[in-house]
Each structure stands twice: as C-alpha cells, then as structure tokens.
Write a structure and sequence with these properties.
By secondary structure, this protein is an alpha+beta fold. Helices cover about 30% and strands about 30% of the residues. The chain has one domain: 4-Layer Sandwich (Anthranilate synthase).
C-alpha cells in the first residue's frame, strides 16, 4: 500500500482514535539537522540518528514534531489534561497510556522501518526504585521527572540509503472530512520541508564570545577529597565481599551560552556514535552520543549488548590491530566484560522463555571514531506474558553504570553519591505503537536546563583502584563533552 486511501481510513476509524497517513518524497538535498530545523523549529520534538561503528551512517534517522501527548512520571499529562500517576508500576502505566491512544497500525505493505511513531524520551536511573528496594540516602536536588515520554503527531523517517523521506501524520479518526483535513495538514508539513532554509548559527540564545566555556570552571557534586574518600569506602565494601565493582559518578555543571541544538550539532561531529539523540522536552533539552545499547525488542526477540574494555584508536590499521589484540589479552578487561555478559544473561533470563537466552556474539572488538570496545550480544525470546517494557524494567540500569552484584552496588551508590542521578545511567529511546523498543544507556550526554549544561560521568571502582586515578578518569570523560560545549560556542556564534 503506497498510501492510506479513504476506504481504509473509514474502516480503521471505526476501531481506532488515530489513523496514520503517510507520504514519501526525495530528500537528497537536506541533512537530518536541516530537516529538524524546518519541521520542528524552536518547538518541542526529537531527532534520533545513528553512526554504526563510528564511521558508517545508520540507514534511518527520525524526526518527531508537533507533540500531541506527554507522559511524565509521577504525573501523566496528555492532550485531555493531567491525571495522577500514584501507582507503583510506572512502565506498566506508560504502556497503558500508549495503548490508550489507540493508534491504528500501518500495514507491512507500506515497507516502513520498525519505528514510524510512538513514545520517545528518557527513563531515569531512579526508576529502579519502583522495582527494587533501595535506601533513600541521596538528595533529589533537581526534582526532575523520573520519566518523560512524548508522542508526536508527525514523524519524519529519513532513509539515507534511498535518499528518501517519509512523513507519517496521525490524523484523528472520523469521516471523509477528517481524512481530507489530515491530508491537508500533511501537505502543509511537506511544504515546510520543501522550503529552502539556511541553518542559523544560533537560535534563541545569544552567544557570549568573551566568556567561552573553556574559561569557566565547572562545579561538581564531588570535590577531589570527598570523591577519593568515597572510592576508599567502595574498596572497603569490595574487600568485605559486598561487591566486585561499584560505578561511582559525579555531576558537573556550568553555564550554557549557546542554543542547545548547537551542542548536539557539535557532539555528533566530535563523537559520532550508534545512538545519537536530541530531545527538546518541556523545561529541558538532552543531547547525547551514546555508544551503548541497553535493550532492543523487535517482535518477541530481545537483545542487549554488554560493552566493557576500551582502548584508543591507533594511527593506522596496523596499530589498530595491535591495540585490539592487547585489549583482548587484558585479564582485567576480560574479567569485567565477562561479569557484564553474565549480568545480561541473568537479566534477560527473568523475562525470556526458559532455555532461549544465548550469547550470540562474544568478546568481539568494535571500532568507533576515537576508541575501540569489547562488545558481546546476548539475546533471547520474550515470554508470551511479558512486554518490551517489562524487559526494560529487568535490565535497568545497565551493569556498566551500577557495578555487580547490581542491587548491592546500587545500594552502595545511593549511600555514597550525594545526589540522585536522574537521567544519567538510565535510558533514552523509543517505544513504538506496535510494541518494538530500542534504547541506549544515557551516557556521554549533556542535559541542558535553566541556562546550565550538566554532564555526569562515572568510574568503575574495583579492589585495586587508585582513588586519584579514578577521579581523573571521570574528569577525562567529562572533558570530551566540555569540548563539545566549547566547540558549539565557537562554531555557532
């Protein structure tokens, strides 16, 4: 089916509240950024992109515009108003909310990718508190929502292989007049996309050239002595047998002096990654370049991708090969990676059919733009009684952001980190109308709100960790994101 015809629209209108209309067009003269600017402008929306192994642009990018409903936990908001979210199962409530929108499916004959619309947003690290008993030691200093998801009326699918764009518009169910109105709205959106638009250097925020981010000292939730003291306490817990590894993090904050979209433009250029995202949400923006999938569900298949073990890229193919071999022979890196593979198997085992969980790839080196990682893939078949969001609840947060054993490590984190993590260490991604899910771990991400940019980074503490070196590791990780901020201010004045 090339497009939704009137007869099919009328038939689906008897069963659903919203019926998707779609149309395709040539998109060989635009980039995802220019299409985002044309379609979303300064409004709320999202952009999802991917660069595979740091060098190859993923086939699809997605732009969401014209939000029609929001789910914010612990408060649910929609176009009909707001209702309380007092239950203890936020992800189950999200699924009920999304199902309640009653969006008709697009037929397979349309040959669209697995995502053509649904809920897009973030799941905070602290959602785990609804599923596991954790102490309440850390302070919730920012009072951010624990989850924000948006459904947009318009989803633009950019097919980089065919140089084609497909616009999907959720029309309200109804009669022939509703069908014609939906078609007219889609035509207006297409007209916006056809306009020649010069990408502005900076939108909405004036850049201050004499006060570049490199000259401003960021503040942090830890200073060096207190971080080192927390590392020593982690080592005591590890020596006592409480944990094998504990991921300790700190959050940096500094003034934001450029438009948030410019930060994303800089980040995608400096650090192309498998999961690139820009979310413009109520009261905040998030720009991320995460290398690490958390969980992906397509149909009944569920998979997670443990990543642990890192080396910088070599100057040529020969040095790349030498560094990769050195990485695979590092006993400490191998032990940490094996621990995460075991965690992945255990997590999936809780929601998958008995005997279906398997390691499909084991300890392979993947090369990205600046680094190489050891990567494995663990997959299984989702139980008939389980949903994609139940699988997400079982794997969050990733072992790379907590440590192991996971629950005990999180208890120690809650004791030692002075403030709640919020989005850091949680997940960002989409939940499609038909139940498919694709999420990444929220790392290498800049959260922007109230004129500030916030960056959170962690270090995996083990028995022989040197406190000052672990502190420096977090600083080094943050520097890459501070560089993206500085470049955004320099390039997009």
């Amino acid at each position: 089916m090339d497009k939704m015809n009137l007869d099919e629209f009328l038939r689906l209108s008897r069963e659903y509240r919203y019926v998707p209309l779609w149309t395709s067009f040539h998109a060989d003269e635009d980039t995802p950024i220019t299409l985002y600017r044309k379609l979303v402008g300064d409004g709320l929306g999202y952009l999802l992109e991917s660069v595979e192994r740091g060098t190859v642009l993923g086939r699809y990018s997605f732009v969401g515009a014209e939000p029609m409903a929001f789910f914010t936990w612990p408060l649910v908001q929609s176009e009909e108003g707001a209702r309380g979210g007092a239950g203890r199962e936020p992800l189950a409530e999200l699924q009920k909310w999304l199902d309640g929108l009653q969006v008709a499916p697009i037929p397979e004959s349309a040959r669209l990718p697995r995502f053509y619309g649904g809920a897009v947003g973030y799941y905070s690290y602290d959602l785990i508190r609804y599923y596991e008993e954790l102490p309440e030691n850390s302070v919730d200093d920012r009072q951010l929502p624990e989850m924000v998801q948006m459904v947009t009326r318009c989803t633009l699918i950019i097919d980089h292989l065919r140089h084609q764009g497909t616009l999907v518009y959720l029309a309200e169910a109804g009669d022939g007049e509703a069908y014609q109105y939906g078609q007219s709205q889609m035509a207006k959106l297409l007209e916006k996309l056809r306009r020649s638009t010069e990408l502005p250097a900076s939108v909405g925020t004036e850049s201050k050239a004499d006060d570049a981010s490199g000259k401003v000292q960021p503040t942090s939730t830890f200073d060096l002595p207190s971080f080192c003291q927390a590392v020593e306490r982690c080592k005591e817990y590890i020596a006592a047998g409480d944990a094998f590894q504990i991921v300790l993090s700190q959050r940096f904050s500094m003034p934001l002096k450029t438009d948030p979209l410019n930060v994303y433009r800089s980040l995608r250029s400096l650090n192309p990654s498998p999961y690139l995202f820009y979310l413009n949400l109520p009261g905040m923006q998030m720009a991320g370049s995460s290398p690490e999938a958390l969980i992906r569900v397509e149909g009944r298949r569920v998979e997670t991708h443990p990543i642990a073990g890192t080396r910088p890229r070599g100057k040529d193919a020969e040095e790349d090969q030498r560094l990769a071999e050195e990485l695979l022979q590092d006993e400490k890196e191998r032990a940490e990676h094996l621990m995460l593979v075991d965690l992945g198997r255990n997590d999936l085992g809780r929601v998958c059919e008995i005997g279906s969980v398997r390691v499909e790839r084991f300890m392979e080196v993947e090369h990205y733009s600046h680094v190489m990682h050891i990567v494995s893939r663990v997959a299984g078949e989702l139980k008939a009684s389980a949903s994609a969001l139940e699988a997400l609840a079982r794997v969050m947060p990733a072992g790379t952001l907590s440590g192991a054993p996971k629950i005990r490590a999180m208890e120690i984190i809650d004791e030692l980190e002075p403030v709640r993590r919020g989005p850091y260490g949680g997940a960002v991604g989409y939940l499609s109308f038909d139940g498919n899910l694709d999420t990444c771990i929220t790392i290498r991400t800049v959260l922007m709100r109230d004129g500030k940019a916030e960056i959170q980074v962690g270090a995996g503490i083990v028995a022989d960790s040197v406190p000052e070196m672990e502190y420096q590791e977090t600083v080094n990780k943050a520097k890459a994101l501070f560089e993206a901020l500085a470049k955004a201010e320099e390039r997009f004045r």
